[in-house]
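Weekly structure sync, notes
Attendees: PL, DS, HV (note-taker this week)

Item 1: Histidine kinase-, DNA gyrase B-, and HSP90-like ATPase
DS walked through the input record. Source organism listed as Butyrivibrio proteoclasticus. Sequence as pasted into the shared doc:
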Amino acid sequence: MMLRKFFLKRLKKYTLILFLPLFAVMLATLFFFSRNQINYIKVESKSSADRLETNIDQLFSDVIYQQSIITGNPSIILSLRKMLTDMTMDYSNYSMFNTMTGLIRSVNMANPYIISIYYYQDGCSRIYSSEDGIEEISTFPDSTFTNYLGRANSGKNYVTTRKYITDSFSKEKEILTFYMSMPTMKGTAVINISMDNLISRMNSLRANPYESLFALNDNGEILFYSSDNVRLSKEDLSIITNKAANNKNLSKEWIKLGAKNYWISTYYGSTTDILYVSLISSDVILASMRTTLFGFLIIFVAAFVAVFIISYRVTNDSFSHIQKIIDTFSDAEKGIYPGEIDQKINDEYDIILMNILKLFLNSTLLKSNLERQQFEKQVVELAALQLQINPHFLSNTLQTLDFESRKLSGGKPTQLNRIITDLSDILRYSLRPSNTLVPLKEELNALKKYIDIQQYRFGDALVFYTEIDDAALNFYVPRLILQPIVENSISHGILPSNRTGFIKLKALSNGERLTISVTDTGVGMNRNELLKLRKQINSSNNNNIGLSNVNRRLILTYGPESALHIISKEKYGCSISFSAFQSLSSNAFNKVFLSTEEENNKRDI
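Item 1 (cont.): predicted structure, written out as tokens:
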């Protein structure tokens, strides 16, 4: 639950940190992109209106130019007027008629937008058709063209849409009709243009699918328009026509049609009096933004996946780190301490946690060591109290045995009395405080009594001799420092050899330094045994109270340089040596131990 809680919290935090800048970048990008798109709409809308005007006006300009060539020929005009008013034609009129027919048909063939061309003279009941020749208006299938003849006068042209039919068997279709005034013959040229071709051309001029193009005549009527994706209601078309009718030079602006906004641009064609309108929906902005939005969506999804993975990894690593610290604390409280803390440092928080962890471990370790030392001290104190009881009892018992032995021998001292006396002196010597320093001379006297007892036990099998500098006798050494070394030589060197063994004690003084060595001719040790012994005497957990005890006492008294130095060779014997320093046997230091010794002597008395 905690992992999930912190994961969600970190996920939220990282998401905000990453997504807020991304969201700001997206908004800024969309803002500038929309501004560019709006400018693009304005430019394209104007360009579309211009292109539409250019193309359609060019079409009508070509038609007007071609008709001006035909109607500008007096012979053709006279022949056409005669044909429309009188059915009789002479050879010259007939020849001119064929020439005019060829010219008109060439116009039709050159311009795919033109369906047919009519020529009408005011007041006549006949017309000339580029397809059928001279026809009576009363029987002509396409009779609706006459509804707009009156609007093309005074040299002004007129454009409109109407229903067109070629014969009684054909269906009506909507076309664009251009009425062109012909003042020279007091009539009108009627040019019928294909609406489908115009709309197809208009579609090709659109800048994008969201654009609608319109063509309005001088009366504000929609002639033709192109609109695929833009759906406009009648009310919307009415708004556009009203704006066009009221202002031919309509300014470029945004207008609202229904629920959408449109940018409207117009261009007025003076040749045809047609107003061209471009209408682009604001949906083009959203449509053009879809790719950008999709790209940002991919970026957001990828960023969220990355944030999700990073949040999980960081949270999981943090909890693993915390759990490791908790386990380390728990183990430390149980007395289990890691050798080295293997933890990667990634940031300043790791440094702080590592320092806290090390501080805790060091504090716990020190506390544990202190408790262990206090326990060991208590054990030692109890053992010392026990030893103080037993030696006193033994010393008193030995004195009793000495008295009884003298009674049995008639008051004469025997070897047994000497042994009892030596043993009693050794016990009394050992009862002094363990921290007492004594002159080497006194330590040698106690050692001699121990050797006497051992030589009585083993006879000629043990030969002990010394080499002592006179200056060395005044050095102060720890009490009972030599007896364990000599005892080790006897027990582990001389006795196992089953032959007479020699032990030499040598004490040499060199100013402030005293060097003591004990050398025997016992069985010795091989290399592995020697290494094992050296390791044992330097171990704090060794239960051996002999050489290990001596080694620790020397180090505590004189420092590491006074530690036991052991050399040995198998079958040749062993030598154990150590050094003591005069600087540690100063008067002040001696007073402490001498005062302790005097108190012990008083206690014995």
